[in-house]
């Protein structure tokens, strides 16, 4: 067990997870904006 390696792998997983959540959030935001524009 190499703690350094473990830490790096965990950090990468967290970054990927974060990116996915961010992408999803931005997509929802764009959809909302589009809907709002259509209503106006």
Protein model, in words:
The protein is mainly alpha-helical and about 40 residues long. The chain contains 1 helix and no strands. The longest helix is centred in the middle third of the chain and has 37 residues. The protein is rod-shaped, with a radius of gyration of 17 Å. The model has no long low-confidence stretch (mean pLDDT about 95).
- The DSSP helix count reads 1
Tell me the series of helices and strands, N- to C-terminal: H
What percentage of residues falls in helices of 4 or more residues? Answer: over 70%
Percent strand: under 5%
The secondary-structure class comes to mainly alpha
Question: Briefly, what is this?
Answer:
With 40 residues, the protein is mostly helical. It has one helix spanning 3-39.
Task: List strands and helices in order, with pairings.
Blueprint: H1 3-39
Key features of this structure:
0% strand, 40 residues, mainly alpha
